[in-house]
Amino acid sequence: MANDLPITTSEWEVMRIVWTLEKATSSEIINLLVKKRTWKASTVKTLIGRLVQKGMLTATKEGHTNTYQCAIAERTAMQEEATRLFKNMCAMKNGEVLAELIQEIQLSKSDIQKLQDALTAKEQTAPDQVACNCIPKEETTE
Amino acid sequence: MANDLPITTSEWEVMRIVWTLEKATSSEIINLLVKKRTWKASTVKTLIGRLVQKGMLTATKEGHTNTYQCAIAERTAMQEEATRLFKNMCAMKNGEVLAELIQEIQLSKSDIQKLQDALTAKEQTAPDQVACNCIPKEETTE
DNA sequence: GTCCTCCGTTTACAAATGTAATCTACAATT
DNA sequence: AATTGTAGATTACATTTGTAAACGGAGGAC
């Protein structure tokens, strides 16, 4: 079960296709991606191969042809990426970034409801200030 | 004005230091990072050099020594990263991911207030459903 | 003034990534 | 059966990234 996933941007595009199709053959993936990106079929094959190596895709041989499936759920992968990103940015500014992000992405009414609930719950225990975590331990001029 | 910033994770760590210090000499950056990470001084120097090339840091020579400053605001860079990430993930699932993200990161009371306001505003025009944007144009088996 | 140190620059080199051609073996066609 | 189209595997190669040593000059220590 791929846990750390150092998955690259190109590979991510392949994953999105397979996540959506649930299972797919290489030609399905290739057809879709050759259109979307200007990749050659070969390129997509390479990416598929690397994803299999990385344990992100499983290949099940059916006759001569492989059927590819994702070894990790899309939601999980997305969550990990999002969390990793925010953990690597200044904690103090996360809130503002999130606020602007909310304005920039599409959200459904029910998404908004969920978010509001989550916020309300969090409000109880929220601190007045979040400390910046940008500088390692010791102080500047130490 | 660095606009696209293909900035790597290691480089990001250097940026965080300089963003926080506002201006810094190489030795300040090196001292902090050699502790935090197990990098050699040389490694940090390389990263600084690359960031200058990429236009993310400016180097102002004061005598023999450089003073480094960031060429792009931290908030801007953070916002770009966050937006880019979410734009590259399944639009339909962004809401859920965000909801869980909110639970995982630290937020101050005022952050929460801002988020709630942003959500309330957005609620007006929110659709009932957000469409998945994972598969390129043409349909699966076309 | 000489030597050492520190800083910036240059060079190094392996691994990962982006991008792809080629080769090989089965499958479908004729 | 011979041919041809494909799918998967192997190989290729430039660029980027991670990680660092080496070099060369300016300033400070003595």
Query: What's the rounded overall pLDDT mean of chain A?
Result: 92
Percent range of helical residues of chain A = 40-55%
Number of domains of chain A: 2
The CATH architecture classification of the largest domain in chain A is Orthogonal Bundle
> What sort of overall outline of chain A do the alpha carbons produce when their principal axes are compared?
elongated
Assign the CATH topology of the largest domain in chain A. Answer: Arc Repressor Mutant, subunit A
Task: Provide an overview of this structure.
Chains A, B: Belongs to the BlaI transcriptional regulatory family. Chains A, B: Keywords: DNA-binding, Transcription, Transcription regulation. The structure is a homodimer of 142-residue chains. The longest helix of chain A is centred in the last third of the chain and has 15 residues, at 109-123. Chain A has helices at 9-21, 26-36, 41-53, 74-87, 94-104, 109-123, and strands at 23-24, 57-62, 65-70. The radius of gyration of chain A is 20 Å and the shape is elongated. The first copy, chain A, is mainly alpha-helical and 142 residues long. In chain A, α1 packs across α3 (41-53) and α2 (26-36) crosses α3 (41-53). Chain A has a three-stranded antiparallel sheet with strand order 1-3-2. Chain A starts with 8 loop residues before the first helix and ends in a 19-residue tail after the last helix.
